[in-house]
Amino acid sequence: MDSARAAGRLRYELLGPLLVRRDGLVVDAGPPMQLAVLAVLLLNPGEPVAREQIVQAVWGARAAETVPSLVATYVSRLRHVLEPDRPRRTLGGLLATRGGSYRLAVAPGDLDLHEFEAARQRARGQRAAGATAQALATLDRALGLWRGTGLDGLPGPFAALHRGRLAELRLAALEERFELALLLGRHHEVVAELGVLAAENPGRQRLRGLLMLALHRAGRQGEALTVFTQTRQLLISTQGLEPGRELIDLQQRILHADPGLELAAAPSAGPLRLVCAPAQLPSDLPDFTGRAAELRTVTRALGAGRRLGAVPVVLISGPPGVGKSALAVHAAHRLRERFPDGQLYAALHEPDGRPGEVGALLGRLLTDLGVAPGALPAEPERRSALLRSVSSGRRLLLVLDDAADAGQLAALLPGSPSCAVLVTSRGRLPGLPGARTVPLDCLGPADSRRLWRRLAGGPPRAGERSPEEAQVLAVCAGLPLALRAAAARSVARPGGGLAGLAARLADRDRRLFELALGAWGVARALDSAEQRLGRAPGGPAALAELRAVSGLGPEAVPAALAGLAEERLDLLTEYGLLQAAPDGRPRLHPLTALHQRTADGRRMDSGSHREPGSDRSTPADRR
Question: Which residues mediate DNA binding here (predicted)?
Answer without folding.
Answer: 2-106
